[in-house]
Amino acid sequence: MASEKWGSKLGVILAVTGSAVGLGNFLRFPGVACANGGGAFMIPYIIAFILLGLPIAWVEWAMGRYGGKKGFSSAPGIFRAILGNDRGAQIGTLALIIPVVIYMYYISIESWCLGYAWKYWTGGMQEVVAEASLQAELAQPGLSAASSREAGIDAAQNYLLHFAGVIPEPGGQKSGNFRILRDFANGSLPFLAICFAANLFLIYRGINKGIEWFCRWAMPALLLCAVIVLARVLTLGTPNPELPDASIINGLGFMWNPVGHRLVEGRLVEVGFWEALATPQTWLAAAGQIFFSLSVGFGIIMTYASYTKDDDDIALSSLSAAAGNGFFEVALGGMIAIPAAFVFLGPETIISAGEKASSLSLGFLALPGVFEHMPAGHFFGGLFFFLLFIAAITSSLSMLQPAIAFLEEGLGLRRHAAVTLLGFITAIGTLFVSLISNGLTVLDHMDFWTANFCIFTLATVEVVFFAWVMGIDRGLEELAHGAEIRLPKALPFVLKYVTPAFLLVIFASWLSKEVFSNGPYVKALREDPLVQLTVGFIIGNYLFFAILVRIAVRRWRKNEGKPEVAA
Amino acid sequence: MSLAGWMIMTASVAGMTVLFGWCIRKVFTLPDATRHLHSQSDIDPRDQE
Question: What ipTM is given for this predicted complex?
Answer without folding.
Answer: 0.84
